[in-house]
Design a protein that fits this description.
Blueprint: E1 2-4, E2 16-18, E3 26-29, E4 34-39, E5 54-58, E6 61-66, E7 71-72, E8 75-79, E9 88-91, E10 94-97, E11 101-106, H1 112-120, H2 138-141, E12 145-148, H3 151-188, E13 210-213, H4 214-217, E14 218-222, E15 230-231, E16 235-238, E17 251-252, H5 254-260, E18 270-275, E19 277-283, E20 290-292, E21 296-301, H6 306-312, H7 316-324, H8 337-341, E22 344-347, H9 351-389
Parallel strand pairs: 5-10, 16-20
Antiparallel strand pairs: 1-2, 3-12, 4-11, 5-6, 7-10, 8-9, 8-11, 13-22, 14-21, 15-17, 16-17, 18-19, 18-21
Helix pairs in contact: 1-3, 3-9, 6-9
Keywords: DNA-binding, Restriction system
Protein name: Type I restriction modification DNA specificity domain-containing protein
GO molecular function: DNA binding
């Protein structure tokens, strides 16, 4: 159980504490809290593989695996060099730490898990040397001062965040599993190049799929070629960077929208990137008026189920067709609207099969979104507690 400290005026204890703890936190140098605080050892690159007995940690986290170890036990790791200088990792059991990672182990009066989370709140990267390759010196790190409670309170805090980290890791693992399932199903539920039937078929359906083109099953348009005149409110304006969410903080006036958009996206239409990033599609699920830039193509389905089409665009056949018709020498690369019309696609003859495939992936996407939201909620919760449970 936790309690909120509302009486402290001097910042020597956190805002939120576990019940029963009232003593002020005491000041120490980082080196005084640890029995070990030193860099790891050099290892040849050829000794690091994609799989092996022991993980290898460097300045930016996990580098791979090797057949030997130089540490055994629980250690907090500080990235000493590299792009993520000052980042924190935690290692359990046997592992190899390179010279670009600083291994930290608490002494008998302190808790290693607590120190790991404490150091993570301290932005240690700010103490790196100002050079082309930023680096942290152990001699400087051990002299940094901080406030800590007694070991009993440290252990409770460390255990609390360890459990929270485990929950986050489980949600991340589940998210990856769902993402991998979606990727596998996209590969197996649409025909591969040279075939007219998918590897996995929904029960009750058979026969070849029909070969056609995007232009035969949808009317295709591109967005305005004019530089938009943005306003603080009005009609939402979408570009290539908005394809995932179909949300934007850019707007144009109602007047400009009426002048420039005789054709515009409506519910169940599909927007697809065509400049820079090419071939990423999303379906419109809003009745709100939307304006869109030339970097997006608008597909208005006429002989195909929209939910099916938006996923079929991700299939191997369609993506390869888009790639072949893309102007790769252009900068940024692009595919012209007329070329999109000619991209080949395979479509089930049966409307019901189209609908069921579309619904299958729609439910999978909804599961993905829910999992992402749950994961983000946990991360936000952790960040809130980090801000309130440390001084």
């Amino acid at each position: 159980m936790m309690a909120t400290n509302k009486t402290v005026t001097i910042k020597n204890c956190p805002e939120v504490r576990f019940k029963g703890f009232t003593d002020v936190w005491k000041q120490f140098r980082l080196g005084e809290l640890c029995s070990e605080f030193r860099s790891g050892e050099f290892i040849k690159a050829e000794k690091i593989t994609s799989s092996g007995d022991y993980p290898v940690y460097g300045g930016n986290g996990l580098r791979g695996y090797t057949d030997t170890y130089n540490h055994d036990g629980d250690f907090a790791l500080i990235g000493r060099q590299g792009a993520l200088c000052g980042n924190m990792q935690f290692s359990y059991g046997k592992a190899f730490f390179t010279e670009h990672a600083v291994a930290v182990k608490a002494n008998n009066s302190n808790d290693t898990s607590f120190l790991y989370h404490l150091f993570g709140t301290m932005n240690l990267g700010q103490y790196s040397g100002q050079s082309a390759q930023p680096g942290l010196a152990v001699g400087n790190l051990i002299e940094i001062e901080t406030l800590v409670p007694d070991k009993t309170e440290q252990a409770q805090i460390g255990n609390f965040f360890q459990n929270l980290d485990q929950s986050i890791a489980l949600h991340e693992k589940k998210l990856i599993q769902i993402q991998n399932l979606k990727k596998a199903m996209l590969e197996k539920m649409f025909p591969k190049v040279g075939s007219k039937q998918p590897e996995i078929r929904l029960k009750g359906f058979s026969g070849d799929w029909e070969q056609t083109t995007l232009g035969e099953i949808a009317d295709i348009y591109d967005g305005t070629h004019q530089t938009p005149r943005y306003t603080s409110s009005g009609i939402m304006f979408l570009s290539v960077e908005n394809i995932v969410s179909l949300q934007s903080k850019k707007y144009i006036s109602e007047e400009d929208f009426e002048n420039d958009f005789s054709v515009f996206p409506v519910r169940n239409d599909i927007l697809m990137t065509r400049i820079g990033d090419i071939g990423t599609a999303n379906i419109v699920n809003s009745d709100e008026k939307l304006a869109y830039y030339v970097s997006l193509a608008l597909l208005k389905p006429k002989k195909v189920n929209p939910e099916y089409l938006v996923k079929a665009i991700s299939s191997e056949i369609v993506q390869k067709g888009i790639w072949r018709r893309t102007l790769h020498i252009a900068f940024p690369k692009k595919i012209n609207k007329n070329e999109i019309n000619n991209v080949e696609i395979l479509v089930p003859m049966c409307d019901e099969e189209q609908s069921k495939i579309g619904q299958f992936f729609k439910k999978l996407d909804e599961t993905l979104v829910l999992q992402q939201q749950q994961l983000q909620t946990l991360k936000n919760l952790k960040q809130a507690f980090l801000e309130k449970m440390f001084v």
